[in-house]
């Protein structure tokens, strides 16, 4: 099979690896517009459950990646200077560029060709192909140019976020909420290597406007955020990597393919970073598409239908939960101003409806007991 993949992110790279390992006769080319050492952002995160799927499906890639991951066994929610640790939530993280570099080397050893600095802007540029995989991210031109065929909807959410890093290393994935005179600032921060952490800052749009970020230069924005989080950064700087304020696009496609073209990863659907499932979903897409093609053979339309059939229930469940999580942050000014630290942590953990009080009690009896002391009615519930 002659396979052309647009986008050298986790979805495209892992799909290429699975196909090439299964049948080395496949000719697989990946086209990436950026250079080999270019990336945006800092670290990416996996939950323990996300890594469980990888271990079950591909022990070799799991063992290849694991030595490069930072791990921790709990998360924390900080309400100003009060920090609430929550047990039973294991996570691992890795630098985005480091993850991509490991995957580049993995697929190249298998014989997959990656064409860096190659900006494909229309399908005709790809030439002859049996299968075209659109793995070119949340802003996929393949999807945007064929929205009617895919049944695409894009819902731009109002909160603003900016993806920074810092040399301050944190010992768990932490959400720090800081009240200021213009509104609440939330930092999503976690260590992704021994000397670096992701430090993503999110605010409601009204807070962004009142702070005056629209007219600030990049260094002024960094200085402002460093002042807000000075107690958390301990004198360490915030570091930019072409960082800028953005809004999150909630992308969905009713149809996942047309002709010989199929969407995977963020091109297919986006999941808000607050649930830490974007990379997991991308790699699970790759596994499902590979399995569908292996099961259905050269009949692409049957393979595409099977791919959607296998993935839709899990994808829709996570996508729905992610969208509930988005809206939780869109009301964080009110939540932080009216909830105690324990209530905020509990509200956060139960925000998507996937965890109820019984599950909180099982995962972290201390948090459950502290919440019960404030709300004894929950015990009867």
UniProtKB/TrEMBL annotation:
<feature type="domain" description="FAD-binding">
    <location>
        <begin position="4"/>
        <end position="295"/>
    </location>
</feature>
<dbReference type="InterPro" id="IPR036188">
    <property type="entry name" value="FAD/NAD-bd_sf"/>
</dbReference>
<dbReference type="InterPro" id="IPR050631">
    <property type="entry name" value="PheA/TfdB_FAD_monoxygenase"/>
</dbReference>
<dbReference type="GO" id="GO:0016491">
    <property type="term" value="F:oxidoreductase activity"/>
</dbReference>
<keyword id="KW-0520">NAD</keyword>
<dbReference type="GO" id="GO:0071949">
    <property type="term" value="F:FAD binding"/>
</dbReference>
<dbReference type="InterPro" id="IPR002938">
    <property type="entry name" value="FAD-bd"/>
</dbReference>
<keyword id="KW-0560">Oxidoreductase</keyword>
<dbReference type="Pfam" id="PF01494">
    <property type="entry name" value="FAD_binding_3"/>
</dbReference>
<protein>
    <submittedName>
        <fullName>Salicyloyl-CoA 5-hydroxylase-like protein</fullName>
    </submittedName>
</protein>
């Amino acid at each position: 099979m002659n396979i052309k993949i647009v986008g050298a992110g986790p979805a495209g790279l892992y799909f290429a690896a699975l196909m090439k390992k299964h049948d080395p006769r496949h000719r697989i080319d990946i086209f990436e517009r950026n250079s080999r050492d270019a990336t945006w952002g800092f670290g990416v995160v996996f939950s323990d459950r996300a890594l469980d799927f990888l271990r079950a499906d591909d022990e070799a890639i799991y063992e290849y990646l694991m030595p490069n991951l930072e791990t921790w066994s709990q998360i924390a929610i900080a309400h100003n200077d009060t920090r609430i640790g929550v047990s039973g939530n294991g996570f691992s993280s890795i630098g985005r560029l480091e993850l991509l570099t490991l995957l580049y080397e993995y697929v190249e050893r298998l014989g997959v060709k990656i064409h860096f600095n190659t900006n494909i802007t229309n399908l005709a540029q790809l030439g002859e192909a049996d299968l075209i995989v659109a793995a070119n991210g949340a802003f996929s031109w393949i999807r945007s140019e064929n929205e009617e065929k895919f049944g695409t909807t894009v819902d731009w959410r109002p909160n603003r976020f900016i993806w920074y890093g810092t040399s301050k290393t944190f010992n768990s994935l932490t959400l720090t909420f800081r009240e200021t005179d213009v509104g609440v600032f939330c930092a999503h921060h976690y260590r992704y290597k021994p000397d670096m952490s992701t430090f993503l800052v999110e605010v409601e749009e009204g807070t962004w406007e009142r702070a005056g970020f629209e007219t600030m230069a990049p260094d002024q924005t960094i200085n402002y955020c460093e002042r807000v989080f000075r107690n958390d950064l301990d004198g360490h700087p915030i570091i930019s990597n072409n960082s800028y304020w953005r809004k999150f696009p909630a992308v969905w496609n009713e149809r996942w393919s047309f002709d010989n073209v199929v969407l995977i990863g963020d091109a297919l659907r986006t999941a808000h970073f607050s649930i830490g499932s974007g990379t997991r979903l991308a790699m699970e897409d790759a596994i499902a598409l590979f399995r569908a093609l292996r099961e259905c053979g050269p009949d692409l339309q049957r393979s595409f239908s099977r791919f959607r059939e296998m993935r839709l229930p899990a994808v829709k469940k996570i996508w729905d939960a992610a969208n509930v999580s988005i809206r939780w942050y869109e009301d964080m000014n009110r939540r932080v101003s009216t909830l105690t630290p324990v209530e905020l942590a509990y509200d956060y953990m139960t925000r998507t409806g996937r965890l109820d009080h019984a599950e909180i009690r099982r995962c972290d009896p201390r948090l459950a007991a502290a919440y019960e002391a404030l709300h004894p009615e929950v015990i009867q519930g």
